[in-house]
Amino acid sequence: MVELDSKSISFPDPEYYGGQDGLIAFGGDLSPERLWFAYQNGIFPWFNPGEEILWWCPDPRFVLFPDELRISKSMRKIFREEVFTFTENQNFEEVMRNCMEIKRKDQNGTWISEQLIASFVVLHQNGIAKSVEVWQGNELVGGFYGLVVNHVFCGESMFAKVSNASKAGFIYFVQKYSEFFKLIDCQVYSEHLESLGAKEIPKKEFLNILKSK
Predict the structure, then answer these.
(1) Backbone region of residue 40 per phi and psi (left: phi > 0; alpha: psi in -120 to 50; beta: other values)
(2) Of the four, 61, 79, 87, 133, which is 20 to 30 A from 146 by CA?
(3) pTM of the model
(4) pLDDT digits (tens, 9 = 90+) for 127-138
(5) Non-local CB neighbours of 33 within 8 Å, separated by 6+ positions
(6) How many CB atoms sit inside 10 A of residue 129's CB?
(7) Is the pLDDT of residue 19 over 90?
(8) Is 78 in a helix, a strand, or coil?
(9) Is the pLDDT confidence value at 108 over 70?
């Protein structure tokens, strides 16, 4: 694991660093420039509040190929009945704040900080970071955000205030952009996304897809 120089934006090559747990480096900052450079190289921050910034590129990588999306009968019914409506990039900061505040099983806190929100808002204003909002009537009940690198959507975090909201937003997004995105990066394993068709692939395969135009 490498300590980053706060005065220059660089990372060790993730193809050769990371080991089994995927931890590549620590330190640096959460500036928009460093974040954007990191994601272009398959690296993302993930750390406990108040602790050193940790940078990861796990092997294997948890991803979803759009043509492998699985939609259950119950989710198809939700779409037929138009339980939710969807927007994109209308409430980016609010989505991030909901992801920061939502209670998660087996987690005491969140890596999403005010500094991270401020930097992601800059990336959003530059057209790099995107959000999907899920609505019931006029209430924002779910959503997620991430970044676009070439033809990969790097998913960061999602939230749901009612059952199936984030899952519906994810399905909506994957179906709509299935012809554009080669891959949805889900970073690390979750049962929630596995049920939708996500799977683990070797880090090297992920990095090759990420860097392909």
Answers:
(1) alpha
(2) 79
(3) 0.94
(4) 999 999 999 999
(5) 9
(6) 25
(7) no
(8) helix
(9) no
Q: Please tell me the predicted confidence (pLDDT) of residue 72.
A: 97
Lowest-confidence segment of 28-37, 90-99, 110-119, 138-147 by average pLDDT: 110-119
The Cα diameter of the chain in Å comes to 53
Q: Is the dihedral of CA 191, 195, 198, 201 positive or negative?
A: positive
Q: Is the dihedral of CA 50, 55, 57, 63 positive or negative?
A: positive
Per-residue DSSP letter, 180: T
What is the SS3 assignment for 201?
strand
Residue by residue, DSSP assigns 112-174 as --HHHHHHHHHHHHTT-EEEEEEEETTEEEEEEEEEEETTEEEEEEEEESSTTHHHHHHHHHH
What amino acid is encoded at 118 in this protein?
A
Which among 19, 89, 13, 11 is positioned nearest to 60, based on CA atoms?
19
Nearest CA to 119 out of 38, 212, 173, 210 is that of 38
The mean pLDDT of the chain is: 94
Q: Tokens 């998913």 belong to which residue?
A: 155
